[in-house]
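Recap slide: Cell division protein FtsX, sequence and predicted structure.
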Amino acid sequence: MRFQFVLSEIGAGLRRNFSMVVSVILVTFVSLTFVGAAALLQVQISHMKNFWYEKVQVAIYLCMDQSESPSCTSGAATDAQKKTIANALNSDELKPYVEKVYFENQSEAYKHFQEQFKGTSLEGTVTPKQLPESFRVKLVDPEKYEIIREYFASQPGVEEVQDQNEWLDQLFSLMNVATAVSLGVAVIMLVCAILLVGTTIRLSAFSRRRETGIMRLVGASNGFIQLPFVLEGVIAAAIGAVLASGALWALVHYFVENWLRNRVTSFSLIGTTDVLWVAPGLLVLGILVAAISSVVTLRRYLKV
């Protein structure tokens, strides 16, 4: 009997404040969509880091005749200088940081250049003599790049020490900024959702103040009186969370899995499985926001 009464009160509240409930659903949907997008973006960043950090190398470019670096004043790197660099990379001092080393001569550098820029305007614009020889170093820990750079930056015969992590860090920084923007928008929208939930509950409580007064007179507890109002907000927020999860699933399924994955094959992309892991968190977050907002509002405005 009590359960049926609570359901009837919830239905009455949802009907009386239908437009406000729809507003709560929409605002919750938008805010949780941004929260979910930010979470999925962080998952994607993690996938990319795991892939690229396993492949990045430090390139120690050697001096050529036309090099302008202060360490190249004597001209192109000599065989003795190359041997010194190779011995240093295989020394006990650097062994804990270096996993693998291989030497790339000018012919190999030209071949890799042609493969990398095949079909572009840069293809065929250089000759093998214009490309420097280099030592390609794979590190045990890619984040220890500075050790290699400091060791070889002023080494005779070395023109430049370049780490592929530098442009990766810039890419990940941009993605982190996008995540922060998404979270910022989500926070603003969540605040709007909290205010809307509070307003909806307050209007619902005001429109039913006579009924709640009668319930109080017949001995109903505060929890029993407040329960229908709280559930109204929770239901609206839960619907918004489900819609947000559905929108994220559709975006990942149709855009990422069915379209983007066929065009980007160099690293792993997020999938609908990741959305299924994020969705419960969105549902819990939406319910908590609505429940807390409802309880706080009822304590302030439900005076009978």
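The chain has a mean pLDDT of 76.
The chain has two domains: 2-52+169-301, 58-163.
(End of recap.)
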